[in-house]
Amino acid sequence: MSSSSKPSLFVPDPATLRKSRVPDYDGLYAASVADPESFWGNLAKDLHFTKVPSRILDWNPKTFQGRWLPDAEGNICDNALDRHVREGFANKAALIWAGDRGEEEIYTYGRLLDQTVRFAHVLKSLGVGKGDRVSIFLPPTPAQVIAMLACARLGAIHSVVFSGFSASALRSRLEDFEPRVLVTAECGYRRGKRIPLLETARTARKGLSSIATTLIVPREETSLSLEPGERVLPDLLKEVRFSGSLPPVPVSCDDPLFVLYTSGTTGKPKGVVHVQLGYMLGTYATSRMIFDLRDSDVYFCVADPGWITGHSYIVYGPLLNRATVLLSEGTPEYPDAGRHWSLIERHRVSVYYSTPTTIRLQMRFGETWPAGRDLSSLRILGSVGEPLNPEAWHWFHRVTGGHLPIMDTWWQTETGMIMVTPLPSTPEKPGSAGRPFPGVVADIVDATGKSVAPGETGTVVIRTPWPSMFRTVFRDPDRYRKYWTEIPGVFFSGDSARKDEDGYFFFLGRVDDVIKVAGHRLGTAEIESALITHPKIAEAAAIGKPDELRGEIIKVFVVLHPHATLAPPPHDEIRTHVRSELGGIAEPHEVEIVISLPKTRSGKIMRRVLKARELGLPEGDLSTLED
Ligand code: WT7
Fold first, then answer.
1. How far apart, in Å, are the Cα atoms of 56 and each of 48, 69, 578, 595?
2. Which of 48, 414, 553, 604 has the greatest number of C-beta atoms within 10 Å?
């Protein structure tokens, strides 16, 4: 997906350069890595602390614990909401919500704070306090944002589960996280279709004893018949006594803000743990410098707050910068293919952060959709989730006026913040995610950890700590260690890339058993575990196959139990089975029933061989192949 020939340079126009907060990338980068504590410490001065930090970082290279702002106390909700209200911005729009069925709601900073305080009171009445865990299974609606901020305010730990997950995917996350409260909604909407979230949540939580209460956010006017342990938000809002203002609970540098589950190379998703203060600094600084957020901005990120992009760049980063955030519930093609373009026109969006799959989908629908709308409010574009191929880059650039900078941002759930990216003031190369963000020491190395020469492909690592680095893997410190010991002493990202002579990164894809489908991260082992729960399937292997629209699609190979070979299950049944186990995003696009799978003598499936065969490529070294 990267460009092979020398890419053309896109140099921002002088007006953008002048306006940008980083007019001199090279100078700032050199200074930031020479003295990272001054660089981050200066940015931390913009934030409010109940105990002001006197030190910036304690780094323990033996345990890989980066304790940022180690002697500070503060609260991210205080910085995202209260601070702006205190400073006179209560009437500024904080959140504009565009629902799937055409609903529209606007929350000022004052109203968002008020609703968050009320929600926090409700959680408190359910016994939630500092360090307690709350799972949030809500569609992209204001309630989702409010529930997150309310947890943060109490010093509680949230774990948002994407509302497209199936009951069993939700259940495995609840089993690991063991929340005291599960917040869910009566339903969500997608492409006009009702998504029955409450039913999914009920199936998922059966028999899980940690959950004392399921808190339900209603959507329709109808009254709900409740099961034991369920409460409806409006009822609790009436009951709870709003005595006092419920100030944000000050937390210290080790206190977690959230756990977000993501796919890895084993069957079980891992709970990536982020802490409040460091994460706050990282998301604040990157939102400010990459998207150049200002009071006048209306900022639209197409992600769902259920993923890390939404955590960092819908909820926390933009609100820390006092921007106006547009949150859209639907999909880019509903009610028509002009959904995003008309939202941009209607709300005068100035910063639009999208994904390669969204852009390629819009390309398919054609230029008449953006051409028919007034997009003159736009000033900065962005992309995330998978490599942005040059064709899509050029299309995105052209249909939005041909003069806007595109921030192709590279990062991960684990990094919490954008790590490699252009800035509005730096020249861009289509197909490249630019260079490391100031203060970030990203490198491309060989298997021994030595930097590779420009033009050579290697693995992406981060050499020094960064503020919003994850702190551990929930209940699994060994898995955390693995990130730092794969190549000793540096953070191993699992991505491959090459750099050009100018230091620009070109990302190529994962080097591990992770697939990126339309930007969603899926583990092959996770899909395989789901497949073998089908009564007729004995063994399974999943691979990612290149796809023009979605980057990769999922192809699965299955071996049937002997008893099933005479009556093999239809492919659709196999696909639906995975869908019900994991959710729609994991549904395989192609299924093939095979007699056996290529394996090593020790019994490991050689997915590499399956992939090479599928793509008609050389199969490589087969010396370890069993048969
Ligand atoms: C993986 C992380 C972090 C935002 C959403 C995904 C891929 C992400 C880019 C980019 C090429 C990218 C990588 C990475 N990725 N952004 N700009 N260019 N690849 O978070 O689910 O944790 O996935 O997404 O492969 O490792 P995630």
1. 15, 5, 46, 58
2. 414
